[in-house]
Design a protein that fits this description.
- By secondary structure, this protein is mainly alpha-helical.
- Helix 9 runs parallel beside helix 11 and helix 10 packs antiparallel against helix 11.
Length: 410
């Protein structure tokens, strides 16, 4: 039988069995399976199934469907604890990653992508909820930065091994997928057996929650999903299609990016804690406008490989500041709303993510630069929304807009 430990008593446990340690373990486990899948994806689909821009757009549209359906987490947690659901989702992600190379055809790739995506998105939904429930408002920005760094360390190790050993050992897609996915499964199984079930002080609502006073958070989530999807689908694909990157070369770029993120991520948490969510997000969105316009310039003006690689690294740094969106919600939310709103927010985040890849994949065939210029416009819209965040957000003071404010129950 599982042991249940109230969160305020968890500090009596050995350090390695505390809630924060479990958050770090999960933050380390997820990127191993996901990063293996992502690092090899563009080369694998081109070599195994001859994907073009339209095909890669379809694949990512399929991958984002479970994110769009993340609101289903509300139903699942009626029967299953969030902590258990998060670890089971990690197992699903790892198992699907391990089997990816066994089905090197369009149908097999799409089916396994969907299964792994269910695991990924349900894990991310629950993980965000647990982070905001288990971390205090005072510690959350710094700890979220360190959790981001822990995920970057795991991803760094994956990419480093692929880059160093891919050619000397003659590694294959099947070997790397099996090992990476298997490690994620093993860590999740260990966490299920080694950790007690932690009880947060405020029971979570297990119903659909859509409050008027959270409207700005919902809008920022929608725009985040739209511009993030353009980067996820087309930035790496550009490096393979335009510059002919091979597996170890693309992985080397990821590796450089991760070294920077490991150093910068904890600093991002300190920036949010010191300057507030509004300034941090405004800085992120200004940076992303510049980056996406420059991506378009790579195609429109013929800028070279070095420029594209530098932009890729800067892109990741700016996206790291998205942790400010989590802490903004933590400050304005009723504690009981965190789990259901995390599920709703993930669904809102993925509305554009499901709808954009296919039409943008078709647009890519005619004008890759136009895809990135569109992303710059989305980042500019996010900047306008971020300017509405107060310096000290709290329930009843969610935006800078004048006039009557919704009550906490709205």
């Amino acid at each position: 039988m599982p042991r249940y430990v109230p969160l305020d008593q968890a500090q009596t446990l050995p350090f390695w069995r505390r809630p924060v340690t479990l958050l770090f373990l999960m933050a380390f486990a997820m990127p191993i399976g996901f990063s293996v899948w992502l690092a090899l994806l563009n080369n694998f689909v081109v070599e195994a199934a001859n994907f073009d821009g339209a095909d890669i757009g379809l694949l990512h549209a399929i991958r984002e469907i479970p994110g769009f359906l993340a609101v289903g987490v509300i139903v699942v947690i009626m029967f299953m604890r969030e902590q258990v659901l998060g670890l089971l989702s990690l197992i699903m992600l790892g198992a699907a990653t391990a089997l990816t190379a066994q089905f090197p055809q369009m149908t097999g790739i799409l089916v396994l992508t969907f299964i792994s995506s269910v695991g990924f998105h349900y894990y991310e939904t629950v993980n965000q909820s647990l982070q905001l429930q288990w971390l205090s408002k005072e510690r959350a920005p710094q700890m979220l930065g360190w959790l981001l760094a822990a995920g970057s360390v795991a991803t760094f190790l994956v990419y480093f091994v692929i880059m160093i050993l891919w050619e000397p050992l003659g590694l294959t897609y099947n070997i790397v997928y099996m090992v990476g996915g298997g490690i994620t499964v093993a860590i999740a199984l260990f966490a299920m057996l080694a950790y007690p079930q932690f009880e947060a002080p405020t029971p979570q609502l297990k119903t659909f929650v859509l409050r008027r006073r959270y409207w700005l958070y919902y809008a920022l989530q929608f725009m985040s999903g739209a511009r993030r999807q353009i980067f996820m689908v087309f930035a790496g694909f550009m490096m393979v299609e335009k510059f002919g990157f091979e597996v170890h070369e693309l992985t080397a770029l990821y590796l450089i990016n991760l070294v920077v993120n490991i150093i910068v991520a904890p600093l991002l948490g300190r920036i949010v804690a010191r300057y507030g969510e509004q300034r941090a997000l405004a800085f992120e969105y200004v940076g992303l406008v510049i980056v996406f316009l420059s991506y378009g310039g790579v195609y429109y003006f013929g800028w070279g490989l070095i420029v594209a690689a530098v932009l890729y690294v800067l892109d990741h740094i700016f996206f790291g500041l998205a942790l400010a969106l989590k802490t903004y919600f933590q400050k304005i939310a009723d504690p009981q709303d965190i789990a259901p709103t995390a599920a709703v927010a993930f669904t809102i985040n993925h509305i554009a993510a499901v709808g954009l890849p296919v039409p943008l994949g078709l647009l890519w065939l005619f004008s890759p630069a136009a895809v990135f210029f569109l992303a710059a416009g989305m980042a500019a819209t996010s900047l306008a929304l971020a300017m509405l965040i107060p310096r000290h957000p709290e329930p009843g003071h969610e935006t800078r807009l004048p006039g009557p404010r919704p009550t906490p129950a709205e």
